[in-house]
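Data availability (excerpt). The following record was deposited with the supplementary files.
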Amino acid sequence: MKKKSMTEIEIKRNLYLLGQIYGYLSNLLPDYNNPSRLQYAYVYPANAVTRLYYECRRAGKLTKQAEDYVSERLSDISPEIDEIQPINTTYLYGSFTVGKYHASRPIRTVIDISGFTQSEIAEKIGVTLRTVGRWYRGETPVGEKERYKIEKLLDKSETI
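Predicted structure:
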């Protein structure tokens, strides 16, 4: 039986998610960030995320929150992504870079560029307007599950 190959959009979506994971985990290990590791991550994103994940675990940096962040995104990644490595075209690994950037941007920025009002976001992700307002003003941190829901709204409203 022939395996289904991934479309370019599916590849970009998967690279974007891998970039988010890489960006999030590399924030847990700032010393891990260097140009050669990042270049490797562009070419072998799934391998780089796996290595970084185990390095975070070894260093004792994987909290329950970090585990949840990673597992939510991994559940949306196709196993076929391993078969397209190495990534050798800039326009594809650009999606990885965008995901990496998005993982570290402030929630206020995410909300501002989402195209939704705070009220619409609250309704779509199942929280109160007051809660979204507190996140927006930086009064309370956004839970990882809620941030992921907001980012999924953004994914639907912008091209990766």
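Summary of structural features: Residues 8-28 form the longest helix (21 residues).
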